[in-house]
Amino acid sequence: MPTLLIIGFVGLLGQLVDGSLGMAFGVTATTFLIALTTLSPAAISATVHLAEIGTSLVSGVSHWKFGNVDWRVVARIGIPGGIGAFVGATVLSNLSTEDAKPVMATILLVLGLYVLLRFTFRGISTKNLGKPLKSRFLTPLGLFGGFIDATGGGGWGPVGTPALLASGRLEPRKVVGTIDTSEFIVAVAASLGFLANLGGEGVDFGAAGAILIGGVIAAPIAAFVVRHFPPRLLGATVGGLIILTNARTLVGKSGFGLDPLQQRFVYIAIVALWAAAFVYSFVQYRRDKALESVDALSEIVELRSAESGQELATSK
Q: Which residue ranges does UniProt annotate as crossing the membrane (predicted)?
């Protein structure tokens, strides 16, 4: 029971992150399930995706109510994503546990590194805001994102969200809401792929239920938070946590088999870099807010100057 409560909290934490950043529910939940359970990588991914069917549905409805969803993009990225997820689930199900565990940990670590770097060092472009997103861009993006999501136990958001943000064609809040909503299609397809290949064998339905409950509680909160919480800070925090947790698998017996002293050195280095990234993110966030304030003040001054000029011209 205590383990299920912890897993439920993991679901809550994962959905808060995912609903706010548009990524990392699967990566977060899978990372902690690897640490907390003895399930095979395929069973862990299947468990997380079963829970995601419910959390992504609730999250999508919550984002829709807040006006954060572009339904045209949902369909055009979600359907290819579902196809990629089904293929990815089939591939992972046919790997041995010994081979799959380091593969999954490597994918998760790379995704964590990407999240950390993406939100620490890069801002959000809106230069093409309002221009339509084309299928020739969304289809391959969906296929790749769905495949990575199923094989890594997460990845739909880390692949899809930065790509849509980089396009500058959707508001950031709509990118988050659209990716979260389309994830329902990916979760259903991945679950069908795992069930077709694994049956119910090894899947922890209790853990899936605990993750689902935690995620459902967090979904409406996250849909609100996305409008207010600085994504740079949240991304830096979550990215570092994912890297640190998956590094444990790669430096241990399942990976490189480093001795305890070497492992400790790796952990200290990761924590130091993580702390530096967070501090940098915070400084950049404060700088961006200050620049926004200056720009807003400049606009007010220009507007008042124009109004004063009009009043002067009228009086003459």
A: 29-52, 73-91, 103-121, 205-226, 233-252, 264-283
